[in-house]
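YM 10:42: Putative signal transducing protein sequence, as discussed on the call
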Amino acid sequence: MKEVLRTTDPTVIALAKSLLDGEDIDWFEMDVHMSVLEGSIGILPRRLMVLDSDLFMARAVLRDNELPVTEDR
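YM 10:58: structure's back
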């Protein structure tokens, strides 16, 4: 799996998941329960992961809707 999005904004994550669902792209949200460690102040970002084969399409969908996209490092 590859990271397609990293953000601390839960509304961006929700929109991105909805857009990916609309394109039948499977996703997995990581770091959801990290708020227990940070004290629920929202400083640790959540990551949205997709299959390697869906990465190109997922990035295109998010970019088309002006959402931030994680690029390869």
